[in-house]
Design a protein that fits this description.
By secondary structure, the chain is α/β, with parallel strands linked by helices. The chain is built from 35 helices and 20 strands. The longest helix is centred in the middle third of the chain and has 29 residues, at 431-459.
Amino acid sequence: MNGIIARSDDVLEFVSDPKIGARLLELDYNWETGSFNREAEVVALLRRHGYIEEGPAGGLTGMGRLFLSRLLIHFDVVSSGDEAMGTLAEKYEGFRVISSGKNSIVVEARHRLLGTNVVLKLVRPGAATDIRHSVRMLSGLRSDSAIVAPQDFLEVIAKDALGKPVRLHCLVFPFIEGITFREFLQQANHHLNSQVAISFARQIGRALAELEELGAYHGDLHDGNIMVDQHAKGGIRFRIVDISFGAMGSLPFEVCRNNDLANYKQHIWRLLRAQRASVPNMSIRKYIGTRHYLKIMDVLSPGSQSFATVCRALQDDGGYASYVLAKEAFVTEKFETPVSFRLQRYEEIIDPSVAVELFVPFEQLMEKIRDYGNIYVSGNRGSGKSTYLASLAFFPNASSDVVDFRQTFGVYFPCRQGEFAPLATRSDWDGALDRRLITGIMIVKIIRRTLEIISAGVSAKELREPTQLAALRQLLGQFVPAPGIVSVESDIQTELENLVSTMVRVEMDEVARIPDAFVGPGEREPRVLMQFFSLVRDAFPDLISTRFHLLFDDAGAPYVPRNVQAVINDLMLSSNPLFCVKLSAEKLTFDFKNSSGKALENGQDYVEHDISQILFIGSAGSGGLARRELERYFRRIIEQRLIHFQYQSSDITDYLGDQQISVERLQDLLSRQAHGAYYAGWSTVWNIADRTPRNLLEIVSEIFVVSNIDRKEAPRVASTRDQDRAIRTISEKRLESLSQISGTIIIDGQRVSLGRRLFEVTSALGSTFRKYLRAEADKRRKRQYLAIERNDFADLTSEAETVLRRLITFGVLDAGRSGFARDDVLKKPFYVLNRIYCPAFSIGYQRDAHLRLSKGKLEMLLLSPAAFAKQGTSRLRQGDDSMPDLFDYRDPR
């Protein structure tokens, strides 16, 4: 029954007695007059526990009447029907007992005349001293209060278990639709809106503060007395039902009020704990956001001793403002913006507006990449693939003159960050399951990312508010488990922000359940994306005419697994006027096959634009650029940074000069190992950069560091010795970094380090070119060998082919073109050494001749580089066997 029984053995014995009915019948208590049989056996027990007033004529105390009512007053509507409810049956019907508690009985019923459902709270005798006064006090509640106040007050005559009439006070409440807070916490998707916790804290906290202000309390705030309407207009709504103010038996006012506060805090904590359990890999602070996290922690702190204090904590943004100031101060102190030319990759630039400002596109290439259609952007490492792709993306607060988002809306995925790695296929998946599972997650990811950047654009005032989101919400609802998308108040989270948050949680759930091969609800085919983008255009006025470009940057292996690449190819093949796919990847790392194994055709299903080949220097007939045109483009790249970082001159030749040494003179000195063979001057620098902006920026930056060039000082030309040292340093670092490349390959049945093998092959090839140059020392015109030319068409072994492909992928060799062999005038492939490695081998950067190799000799180079360096060709066999010490360079001059 209650705590009294637990503390009293004699009471427990009494209520457990099979003859309790006869003993109560002997008591013969009259509820109207208060009289009873004082000779009854049970009187001694009642007197012993203080349930009878002092004196020979003392009647039952309030607690005595309450104790007796708990034993005698029940409403068995199951067996007795509506008649069990006494006079209530005259006005109501369809009774159902919801709960029979210590102080009241709660019953659901239907009004006979109006047909509306109500909740009847019948207060037990002795539970209240002046229930009428309590009801009058509750009339002061606001009409929109979350407290469900009584709408009527009745006196009811019913019968107790012994058939005696008893008069009860009845509070009539409107029936509230929804589920209980207990049921809400047990739902599978209660975590999908991370702002539910702050919404709950505000709604319930304000309601209880209103009661506190009236001098009232709830008294029984358990999780069954909070109703949740997840589909209410304006967002999820919490309502407090079954208020027990004034009907709490002998409990003091302060105890009841403190119980409300303790239960309120406990419910918040339970909600946070339930949500935290559903996102185990994320802190609760990150999950709900720092602003609301600080408020909730303040509410839950011991300092919150009243609901007035709770409301102040929920309204106070001072803690968050202090946090933001401290965060900004920390970032300013620890991450001062560096003055460096190395900031070239988009993902290395924190501020997108800086990335846009520093980006210098090659216009002929940019025109091709921004065209609507499926495009693959390739090129050597550091050629700017990422930057070209990112320039098409929509970034709030970063205005771009490259594209207009009203016509081209780029949705950018930086694949290098590992977002797609967890989607790699499992051994127990078949092809159909793999496609269905990954396609579904990819569609969710694309929708989530699109909504994220649109929401950011609206917040930044770059995009106008949506005209309506109902259709979009309906479409997204198919991805969400029942009961669907849950909103909160708009001042906490807008509907657009809610859609973003919901899709983020859906994605997190589905990625976490990949090991279970869980396929989420809803249709998961490319046509859903077409429907989604169509609804987005309808909802946002600024996007009514735009077309969406899905941008996958660094989409090759290992960043994007092959099965995910297949789904991206599926999207490419779904040709439509709403979205297209653009991707960048290292050479030979993206497999252009869809989920069914169909090979996509370059020029038909997509178009490849190789940056390195577009920036190729050659005659007009070869389709190459004029040397002067490429030089002007590289000069603009440096000029843009000199202006941005506020150097005193924007002309790079004011810092590097350009007349120090010609390429012919440099090759002559290098062939003879003579003094004065310095790599220096602007022409030398941009040629060694080999059509790669990243190489260019690293070399110039290193020269500025070595020469102590300060942006605040007047421009001066760095010495040739300093320039040479800086250029050789970058070249040797680039060569050495090859050995750090991760992974292994199989050669002669043995697993060997991929990075080490690439380093060995590059070293052997560079050393070979160096020996060939030195062999030219006595000739009037020195020829520099910088490329390998195939002199046959025989296929390489798979192991040799693997090494060759990796050399191309990691930018050691450029294999973008083929040429006519001099011996048989047949067009054959040739592979050019990246010029960034030339200084490391003390060779020239002008390609004058090719090293013609047969299948066997090329395989020797790739599989046995040390042997090739000694005897791979007749000239190598005639020369010395020494290999240069690449990382202990000593200036021979």
